[in-house]
Amino acid sequence: MQSSNHTEGPWDINAFNLTQIIKVKSGPDKDGRHYKDGRHQIVIANVGQDGDDWAERRANVHLMRAAPDMQAALESALSELREWMEVFPDGSDNTPRVIEEIEAALHKSRNW
Question: What is the dihedral of CA 75, 6, 107, 19, to 10 degrees?
Answer without folding.
Answer: 100
